[in-house]
Design goal:
Layout: E1 10-12, H1 14-21, H2 28-37, E2 43-46, H3 48-53, H4 55-60, H5 63-74, E3 79-82, H6 86-99, H7 103-114, E4 119-122, E5 134-137
Parallel strand pairs: 1-2, 1-4, 2-3, 4-5
Length: about 140
């Protein structure tokens, strides 16, 4: 995929993981191809992935689905799930103030920046306005 070969660490927005885990009919295959293309690269995501991706699981009240999704996350090669620190939260607040972002988006971006990622991959065009990190969408790849 173009634009990824020279990148060191890559950060993923929750939507990319959601498409992959839930086999989204519009973006699931593209997310799978992306994760395959970057399987040997370190991938960073915030622990917010749990709060964002497990809503559907808990709505279904299916314990086996919960275990399956946890295993699917654990199987993504070189995926580091990073908890927000005070430093990340303060950076998220700065990003919210500068770009009028929603808190989850700001935390994901701040996590990527604090983790020294080269690229943040999302499917949200609105996040491309952030200047502190190179933001790419699935369409850019």
């Amino acid at each position: 995929m173009k634009g990824l070969s020279s990148a060191g660490k890559i950060s993923l927005d929750a939507n990319i993981i959601l498409y992959y885990l839930h086999q989204d009919k519009n973006f699931g295959k593209q997310s799978f191809r992306l994760l395959t293309a970057v399987k040997n690269k370190t991938k960073i995501i915030s622990t917010l992935i749990y709060a964002e991706s497990f809503v559907y699981v808990f709505e279904q009240a299916d314990e086996s689905l919960e275990k399956k999704q946890l295993k699917a996350l654990e199987k993504i090669p070189k995926l580091k799930i990073v908890a927000p620190t005070k430093k990340i939260c303060l950076l998220a607040a700065q990003l919210r103030a500068a770009y009028r972002l929603k808190t989850p988006d700001a935390i994901h971006l701040a996590t990527a920046i604090d983790s020294d990622c080269d690229i943040f991959i999302t499917n949200d065009d609105n996040l491309k306005k952030v200047q502190e990190i190179n933001v790419l969408t699935l369409a850019d790849l």
